[in-house]
Amino acid sequence: MKNFARFLQLIKIMVILIFASPLIMLLVWFLQPKQPLAITVIDKTVLNTSNEEHASLFWHLNHEKYVHPITRKRFNPDRDYYGFFPGLNGQYQIKGLSQLTVNQLDSVANFSDFLYFTDTYGIFEQEWNKSISANERSGVIYGGLSVADLHVMNKAKSLGKTIITEFNCIGSPTAETERSAFEALFNLKWTGWIGRFVENLDTLQNKEIPQWMKSQYVLQHGKWPFKKAGIVLVSQADKIEILEMDVELTFPVPIIRTAPFFQQETKLPKQMPYPFWFDIMDPGENEVLAQYNLETTAKGDELLAKIGLKKNFPAIIRHEDYDYSFYYFAGDFADNPLTYKRSYFKGIRWFREFFYDPTEPTDRAYFFWEYYLPLLDHILKR
Q1: Whole-prediction pTM value?
Q2: What angle do helix axes 176-186 and 147-158 make, rounded to 10 degrees?
Q3: Closest Cα to residue 187, out of 309, 324, 290?
């Protein structure tokens, strides 16, 4: 028995050594069969050619060698989506669903087994025009959920397709009419609150904190006393509340806790720190597959209760039945600064622990490798 165990261990070591060769990993990826996938991606928030807002999704599509079912070409993160396309020297193009006729919109829904709305926030003047201060608010160039988007969603729902949406699908700058239509279509509701972890709330050290945020907070609360990490909560009406580490928080970032039955379905970890944007949703009659948990002190509980929020709220919402499938990720899940070239190496996921620090809760790569990838595996393979 000992000899057999040693033999198995030797085989495992040999397999690891073989796949450790980048050339062999690349060759194995190249030789693996293509998988046709009818997926349509909508991303209105592509500020530059890094494509971070949908980088995680296209990394996965390329790594698993999913291809367009008609052309048999691999999906290109620079090209294969509807939305905002940045160019050189301040130039850009908009190729959105709103530019299509009703018949073309119906064709999109008929063709697609999956619709994935990674982000509809859009592009604002201050982000695109560098002459405008990044700390001040400005008008939107392009963004928000549109009537055309809703038409495709509605048609896809009627055809029994799978629809995946993410954080800020219906937040600002989406108009109230379109937001209400989305909520009625999928039987859920936005509370009007969004939030984000901020690693350093000291505005003298962290220049990325927008001036309007500090100004609004001081206007509402009298001063900005923060020096540590924390979670900033912003309402649709620009009300701002802040949970600071060691004051209202005992752990700096929200923790996603996955329901036991969904852990069994997906092999997702029981819990995962999530250090980025999220929104607070009312799931209605939909399933809650995972929840955010804010690790708060008694003072934090009191602050949340004052504004009508709880420390636990949905992270993944699902409707899945014979009629259609719908997922709402209440976070900016597909957004991640990734090394896209790694998607070409078959077996790279075996070595994922080299690419993140599991002891660092603010490491977004940890979330990508251990949570987003297996979640997407599960949905696309169903």
Answers
A1: 0.91
A2: 10
A3: 324
